[in-house]
Amino acid sequence: MSVEEVREKVRPAFEPDFWERHIVLVHKYCVLLAEKLHADKEVVELAAYLHDYGRVMDPARRDEHQLTGAELAPKVLEGYPEETVRHVQACIRTHRGSVDLKPGTIEAQILANADAMAHLDAVPWFLRLRYAKGESVEEATAWLRQKLERNWTKKLTLPEARKLVRKKHEAAMLLLGGTADSP
Ligand SMILES: [Fe+2]
Ligand SMILES: [Fe+2]
Hints:
Blueprint: H1 3-10, H2 16-37, H3 41-50, H4 53-57, H5 65-76, H6 82-93, H7 106-120, H8 123-132, H9 137-155, H10 159-176
The structure holds fe (ii) ion (2 copies).
């Protein structure tokens, strides 16, 4: 099965907005970083499409979607070598900044970094999602600021990734009322 076939297999599970405003961007940044860092492109592409799959397939366990996503991956990746499947699973398990699991390979690092990079392109969408939950402007802004600050300190570990989004991060912090800590 090709990467494109995997993409088409999982795409219907996602809300169109979630797909276009997040998954597509994570995939784009995964490819970009894999090329820059000479990483395994196939692994990061598969991981990009699958990293939040658990979140949409098992909403009741959304808070541990890094685990449900890894559990679901082998079924989606039928026909792929076991080594590839295991590597994709490892990437999925460590993609979250809010869970203290460190990415163990360059591909896993790329996924976590690309996830954070994608967030910076989706500021209006995140605010809209929080308003839809009934949050005030202040609550939504504070939530997003904390998320982006956590991304910067915990997820954006690759110097190449930080360099690419430093200006966006600083602009977002300025507009959301945070302090841009960008050593
Ligand atoms: Fe996620
Ligand atoms: Fe994500």
